[in-house]
């Protein structure tokens, strides 16, 4: 889950999220909200994402500013759960 959080939050291509689904939602102003262990146990979900599923949350009053922040300064808005996983990954990573 830590690696997944880092992949979605920290891995970038030209400054934007490397994952195309994450990039889509973040461009539209969402918050990287929650990572669910074994949220998709279908054969496709296991093969594509080791069964993990991600929730993106849209706060309607913040979508325009979140989108502008992401597109302008390439900053990803994320929940405390995701940021805690990112922090744990960074503390334990050799990258």
Automatic annotation (TrEMBL):
Gene3D superfamilies: Malonyl-CoA decarboxylase, catalytic domain (3.40.630.150)
GO CC annotations on file: mitochondrial matrix; peroxisomal matrix
Gene Ontology biological process terms from the UniProt entry: acetyl-CoA biosynthetic process; fatty acid biosynthetic process; malonyl-CoA catabolic process
UniProt domain Malonyl-CoA decarboxylase C-terminal: residue ranges: 1-58
InterPro entries for the chain: Malonyl_CoA_deC (IPR038917), Malonyl_CoA_deC_C (IPR007956), Malonyl_CoA_deC_C_sf (IPR042303)
One Pfam family named in its UniProt record: MCD
Gene Ontology molecular functions: malonyl-CoA decarboxylase activity
Protein name: DCMC protein
Organism expressing this protein natively: Cnemophilus loriae
Classification of source organism: Eukaryota, Metazoa, Chordata, Craniata, Vertebrata
């Amino acid at each position: 889950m830590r690696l997944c959080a880092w992949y979605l939050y920290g891995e970038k291509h030209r400054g934007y999220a490397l994952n195309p689904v994450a990039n889509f939602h973040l461009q539209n102003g969402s918050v990287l909200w929650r990572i669910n262990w074994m949220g998709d146990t279908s054969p496709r979900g296991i093969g594509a994402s080791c069964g993990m599923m991600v929730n993106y949350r849209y706060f309607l009053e913040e979508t325009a500013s979140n989108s502008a922040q992401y597109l302008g300064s390439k900053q990803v808005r994320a929940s405390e759960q995701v940021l805690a996983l990112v922090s744990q990954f960074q503390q334990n990573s050799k990258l």
